[in-house]
């Protein structure tokens, strides 16, 4: 590969957000020693912000003068990029922002799934602190990347990596206490989880890749808002019908009204009515095409019922630098790979599966007699039995244990590629 540094002609300026606590906590030194020289050599101006606490990057991105930069780079793990992406979708100008900005990730975390996936998809070697990732920052090459809109009963978020229920999420969350070890913590905890193998009860609904999303029949009202004068003063949304999604941020008690922004695909909400202090920012982003979380699904969806050791959806090749979960994944194929281990799998099979993750050999369906399945979907819903305890994770972060649904939005954002 040609690693010549490209000198820029265009007006580029980067925002760099660095998590000093990522991984084993060496991000700052690594950035100064390895990355700054490359950016200086390429004469790319940048503004560096060190995060001060969790959600610092998210708040920063939500409220900053974003358009002064052409790219946002995180130095950290997937968790930091998750904050940045979701901060973007909390901006009313999100649709302009995602056209303008490309996102980059310089791996420094203990979960570096996306950095590894981007390197893989571009046929680049991967070794943090990734030289290719740094060089990507000096160029203006980008690829489009799919994002997944995720909904639980308490929040809406946008995910770029995976949604998990079962053994992989258990390992990811429970091994937090071994953070000081860096990525090997996954391997160690895998063994522990295998000894105390658990399964979880619930339902998994999915829309197969070859089926179309039938937009939900009680769709959002739409208006021609090309002229601001047409803006309706208020649109009241019923909360006991299929579109209560619009307001799922808010407590059921709060009265609310909403109006639609000029794109018609997003909305804003005002809550002046009851004087409740609603701190939680609005989540904008493209509107869902699915029925709300409590409504029945269309007939072209399929359903699996029973006990599961694992249900994991991933949309990139890797969910960690040694976890080659969806070998056929692409950055922008508009597909999620749904991986299912039924409770009937034996310990030996689960062990073989976990070992296979490093090389991708687990993805061979002939190995598993149907106890492990892997197929592509466009949307899914998981309804765990909440009488049991467990974890649900989105891009490695825990979310509320309860119903969750997700749908893929093809090619929604730009990512920097080497
Ligand atoms: P890792 O891959 O090691 O988990 P990440 O960069 O993904 O590293 O960050 C892990 C978590 O740390 C993220 O959820 C993020 O919100 C949080 N975080 C970001 N900045 C800070 C900070 N300065 N102090 C503590 N936590 C932070
Ligand atoms: Mg994909």
TrEMBL record:
<dbReference type="GO" id="GO:0016020">
    <property type="term" value="C:membrane"/>
</dbReference>
<dbReference type="GO" id="GO:0005737">
    <property type="term" value="C:cytoplasm"/>
</dbReference>
<keyword id="KW-0808">Transferase</keyword>
<dbReference type="GO" id="GO:0042981">
    <property type="term" value="P:regulation of apoptotic process"/>
</dbReference>
<keyword id="KW-0067">ATP-binding</keyword>
<keyword id="KW-0418">Kinase</keyword>
<keyword id="KW-0472">Membrane</keyword>
<dbReference type="GO" id="GO:0005524">
    <property type="term" value="F:ATP binding"/>
</dbReference>
<dbReference type="GO" id="GO:0008481">
    <property type="term" value="F:sphingosine kinase activity"/>
</dbReference>
<keyword id="KW-0547">Nucleotide-binding</keyword>
<feature type="domain" description="DAGKc">
    <location>
        <begin position="9"/>
        <end position="154"/>
    </location>
</feature>
<dbReference type="GO" id="GO:0046512">
    <property type="term" value="P:sphingosine biosynthetic process"/>
</dbReference>
<dbReference type="GO" id="GO:0012505">
    <property type="term" value="C:endomembrane system"/>
</dbReference>
<protein>
    <recommendedName>
        <fullName>sphingosine kinase</fullName>
        <ecNumber>2.7.1.91</ecNumber>
    </recommendedName>
</protein>
